[in-house]
Design a protein that fits this description.
The chain is an alpha+beta fold. Helix content is about 15%, strand content about 35%. The protein is elongated.
């Protein structure tokens, strides 16, 4: 009897132990399955996998289940493809920002109030980026100061437009307005004459505007000129004052070379230029050359702007006449570098307006000089010298040429303009 009781108790104990082992194995298996089934989201940091039972946890769960197409109505932008798949939360101002995925909001991830930082990229302002915000400072147009900033001694400013029609071979010139004209009397009655140089005989003329120094013309003119020669022409606009005796007094003029880049695209270009006084000095024996000099000590750059020449003595019996200017940089009378302008056809008063720069150290300016030579093209790829100007320090020059060089050095980063008489001295 005792043996049977012992067997029953042993069987019950063994059964309980077996059930305990089976239950423990099931718990371990479930936990192992839960660990193996966990996947970290690509591109996102590891976060808590359980949501709290508070109201904040419920709201975050709702935000995690929101899709990009569930954005509220009235949002004035479309989420870019690179940002789709992310969650967004509404801010107090009606804008939208990316929602952090951690139930505990860090202070640096809380929505920022609108400020100037909204115009910065997300990498600068943090992980929270307000989408659709506009910084008005980035969209302001630069103020047009062409009607307010006039240099000292300005004779006036002229606005005009140019357009060349290739098929019809017509140059369209629009005369728009003038400002701050300096009349010889209290009242000003201006008009404008338009020449297409080198043709000095034919011109077009605007209407006379009575008693105003700031006339508004709004007139259009047409010149018939071939496409082959239009880039060799220079548009001259001369502004006159008409007095009571109907005499014309020149107030100033604008010389505008018609280059390829100016006429490219068959589009209308609006341009403004300050008036220049006409030189009253008679031309020199071999003609005169006007150019600007400037030196930038920070960039060690010597700049030459070849403007125009006048009164040249051309050799017209040599076929087609074209004139260019050769600019040479010398050091101790040794050639360093040479550049030249484009050639202008058939004019004794060619206009260039071309800029050249030379790399020159400040220590070399005491031994450097510039030689500007006016050349005429001849047949057979030959050229002939019409005149020459040399500007430089006291070692090489005197008079106006030395004054021009000294003014350039005394006024750094500024272009100094002067006329110079040409000579026929032989080149070194």
């Amino acid at each position: 009897m005792a043996e049977q009781l012992a067997l029953v108790i042993g069987g019950i104990a063994g059964g309980l132990l077996l059930l305990l082992l089976v239950g423990l194995s099931c718990c371990l298996w479930r936990r192992l399955c839960a660990i193996l089934a966990y996947e970290e989201l690509p591109g996102t940091p590891a976060m808590a996998t359980t949501a709290t039972s508070s109201g904040q946890g419920d709201k975050l769960c709702q935000m995690h289940t929101r899709t990009p197409s569930s954005s509220p109505p009235g949002v004035p932008f479309v989420v870019p493809p690179s940002l789709r798949g992310r969650d967004w939360m509404p801010l107090h101002s009606g804008e939208w920002a990316q929602a952090p995925r951690d139930p505990c909001l860090a202070p640096e991830l809380l929505p920022h109030a609108p400020s100037s930082n909204l115009a910065l990229p997300p990498s600068i302002v943090g992980d929270t980026c307000v989408v659709g915000a506009i910084n008005p400072e980035l969209y302001k147009f630069s103020e047009d100061k062409s009607e307010t900033d006039f240099p000292a001694g300005c004779l006036g400013r002229l606005w005009f437009s140019v357009e060349y029609q290739q098929e019809a071979e017509r140059l369209l010139v629009g005369l728009i307005k003038a400002r701050q004209l300096q009349a010889p009397s209290e009242t000003c009655s201006p008009l404008v004459k338009l020449h297409l140089l080198p043709d000095e005989r034919r011109f077009l003329q605007s209407k006379t505007k009575r008693k105003t120094s700031n006339p508004q013309f709004d007139e259009h003119f047409v010149f018939q000129v071939s496409s082959k020669s239009v880039t060799q022409r220079v548009l001259r606009l001369s502004v006159y004052h008409v007095d009571r005796q109907r005499k014309h007094q020149l107030l100033g003029q604008v010389l505008f070379p018609l280059k390829h880049e100016t006429l490219a695209g068959d589009c209308r270009r609006i341009i403004w230029r300050d008036l220049e006084a006409e030189s009253l000095e008679p031309p020199s024996e071999f003609g005169d050359l006007q150019f600007c000099l400037g030196y930038n000590d920070y960039l060690s750059r010597l700049t030459v702007v070849v403007l125009r020449a006048k009164g040249l003595r051309l050799q017209e019996d040599r076929g087609i006449v074209s004139v260019f200017v050769r600019v040479s940089l010398m050091n101790h009378n040794k050639f360093v570098k040479c550049k030249k302008t484009s050639a202008v056809l058939g004019s004794i008063n060619p206009v260039y307006n071309e800029t050249f720069s030379f790399k020159t150290d400040a220590t070399e300016l005491d031994t450097a000089s510039l030689s500007l030579t006016v050349m005429q093209n001849l047949e057979g790829d030959k050229s002939q010298q019409l005149g020459r100007v040399v500007v430089g320090p006291y070692m090489y020059t005197r008079g106006r040429e030395l004054e021009h060089w000294d003014q350039m050095l005394s006024r750094p980063k500024e272009l100094v303009k002067r006329w110079h008489a040409l000579s026929r001295t032989s080149e070194p």
